[in-house]
Amino acid sequence: MRNELLSPAEMAEADRLAIAAGPLDGYGLMQRAGEAVAAMVLARYPAAKKVHVLCGPGNNGGDGYVVARLLAEAGVDVELWAEGKQKPGSDAALASEACNLPVNHIGHCYPEAGDVVVDALYGAGLSKDISQHALAVSGVSSAERVPVISIDLPSGVSGETGQMRGHFDAAVTVTFARKKPGHLLMPGRRVCGEIIVADIGIPDSIIDQLKITTFENTPDLWLRWYFPRTAIDAHKYKRGHVAVFSGGSSATGAARLSALAAARTGAGAVTVLSPGNAMQVNAAHLTSIMLRKADTIEDIAEYLAERQPSAFVLGPGFGIGERARAFALRLLQQNRVYDYDRGIELWGIVLDADGLTSFRDNPDTLFEASHRALAPPLVFTPHEGEFARLFPDIARSKKQSKLAKARAAAQRANAVIVYKGADTVIAAPDGHAAINANGAPWLATAGSGDVLAGIIAGLLAQGMPPFKAACAGVWIHAEAGRRFGPGMIAEDLPLAIVPVLHELIENQPDLR
Ligand SMILES: NC(=O)C1=CN([C@@H]2O[C@H](COP(=O)(O)OP(=O)(O)OC[C@H]3O[C@@H](n4cnc5c(N)ncnc54)[C@H](OP(=O)(O)O)[C@@H]3O)[C@@H](O)[C@H]2O)[C@@H](O)CC1
Ligand SMILES: [K+]
Fold first, then answer.
1. What was the pLDDT predicted at 308?
2. What is the mean pLDDT of residues 149-155?
């Protein structure tokens, strides 16, 4: 897999292992890094009037000296600008010695329209805010529309968290071996431009040794082994039965959106569980989706015994309060069911929106229930506000990245957490996590989250493991929204996922 995301510490470990295994030493890796960037600059900007290379004191700057030397050798007009003191004898010092160009202080750098800037100030070793001089060059570059090529990361962006300490706005970021979380987490992602991952000679076998648990959410993560295969003899209930709880008579649309999405995702049967006072309005709007009255805990118990549904959605439009808490805790009393023949978990619960907010005053009652040994798999789908209500202390942390927060929450809740946003993070209680990157702004529309909850439930119902179902659901939902484009409303989404599903299945020969 090439979708692992390496933290700066993991990347340093990969470098260390690669150097120990040979044949390249640190200086050799730096040459390869510089070659990749120089080749990219030559290919993309053959008509650049001048290339300004900004070098910091560490190895990011070292890469910059290699780029400057190679571009000058290729006949490009190169000017070198530096700040900070190099460590004598470091790879960066060797790279600067090998580069014979004059070095100017960065405070005098004024790029002009038609030039290109190579930003080799700070990468993995960023440890403080970037200087006023660096910020000034960044500002002039933006004002003059001078493209910035950032090495490893736009200087000022943390590779670990995506947080920024001043920044460059890159047109292209060239990173090495694998992407880093900071390339995908906001706000860093916004300033990376196009991200190119260059091979500098660190083999996959070295990355494998690191046992990475953070990934970019791409189909590689879940399509081949885990995506539901519709068996030829599939009976509708074998393809899973999803139940979605509806709100009262004036708030039923959200549940129907979830229900429709679950059905489109391939669940064989879907039922809306409705309060008595909303039966009529739900009945007026449902056709293939079934409807059943569920006002009380007894109604739910009866339904569970009779129909053995395989996934629930509780929360969209449901209403905040005691009823939501009681229903959620009742579902959590059911034991998980494992189908040993098919090797799949038979059911799970997606808790969204009001289903989460209802526990804001006493989240521990929810977490105690979810930690019971036989409790069914749980997926929470909070946006930022809901996350803060359920995990206030984690949400407040200034130090932790969104990735770390989602992981901490997943452990505490013993649930898969889908921490939504432009950079949705999916985290499992066992520490596995993925960052989604195929979203689009049009997904931020009312009802979009209800559809996502339904897609995930549809996948859970078909036996997909909860973390994989959540990852696949987020990706499919985002892909459908991205392809639909401007003008999309949530009602469009359940149908828009269909071509995405077709393509996923067609692209996997062993899934046909
Ligand atoms: N390892 C390898 O084999 C390979 C690594 N490669 C490359 O190395 C890069 C990582 O190199 P690195 O670890 O030297 O860190 P780097 O980002 O250059 O910064 C550290 C220096 O900057 C300083 N500093 C930090 N922030 C600052 C600020 N805001 N303002 C001012 N100063 C600041 C910091 O100071 P200190 O924290 O020590 O006070 C220290 O002196 C990586 O991104 C990739 O490009 C490739 O060549 C492939 C092979
Ligand atoms: K940089």
1. 80
2. 98
Give the residue, out of 65, 67, 126, 183, with the most ligand 1 atoms within 8 A of its beta carbon, to mutate for a pocket test: 126
Q: Is 422 a known ligand-binding residue?
A: yes
CATH no. for 234-504: 3.40.1190.20
The answer, yes or no, to whether residue 234 has pLDDT greater than 60, is no
DSSP 106: G
Identify which has the larger pLDDT, 336 or 492.
492
Q: Separation of 123 CA from ligand 1 center, angstroms? A: 5
- Atom index in ligand 1 nearest the CA of residue 29 equals 49
The residue among 236 and 369 whose pLDDT is bigger is 369
Q: How many CB atoms lie within 10 A of CB 422?
A: 16
- Tell me whether 0.85 is exceeded by the ipTM: yes
For residue 34, which atom of ligand 1 is closest to its CA? 47
Distance 157 CA to ligand 2 centre (A): 8
Pocket test for ligand 1, best of 59, 85, 87, 128 (most atoms within 8 A of CB): 59
CA within 13 Å, CB half, 403 = 27
Residue whose CA lies nearest to ligand 1 atom number 15: 125
CATH no. for 8-212: 3.40.50.10260
- Is any ligand 1 atom within 6 A of the Cβ of residue 382? no
The closest alpha carbon to 203, from 458, 411, 15, 462, belongs to 15
Rounded CA-CA distance 305/454 in Å is: 22
Q: What is the pLDDT of residues 340-365, one digit of tens each?
A: 776 666 689 999 999 999 999 999 99
List the chain domain ranges: 8-212, 234-504
pLDDT per position as a tens digit, 471-494: 999 999 999 999 999 999 999 999
289: nearest Cα among 273, 269, 319: 269
Terminal-to-terminal C-alpha distance of the chain: 22
Give pTM, 2 decimals.
Answer: 0.96
